[in-house]
Design a protein that fits this description.
Mean pLDDT: 94
Number of strands: 0
Helix content: over 70%
Largest sheet: none
Number of helices: 2
Shape: elongated
Strand content: under 5%
Number of domains: 1
Order of helices and strands: HH
């Protein structure tokens, strides 16, 4: 199953925004941990996609 390109490209940004929202809005330890995990996974996905695209060009 393939996702539409605009949705696929925007998912890591939404992960980071969701992580920041989870950290900043709820004052519980689990919310903080969930926000850190969600935000860091979005950043990791962005880096992996960037590296893969660079390797395809070369």
């Amino acid at each position: 199953m393939e996702m539409p390109k605009p949705i696929y490209e925007s998912l890591p940004i939404l992960y980071v925004i969701g992580g920041v929202a989870a950290i900043s809005t709820v004052d519980s330890f689990m919310s903080f941990i969930s926000g850190i995990l969600l935000g860091s996974s979005g950043i990791i996905i962005m880096f992996l996609r960037r590296n893969h695209r660079r390797s395809e060009i070369l």
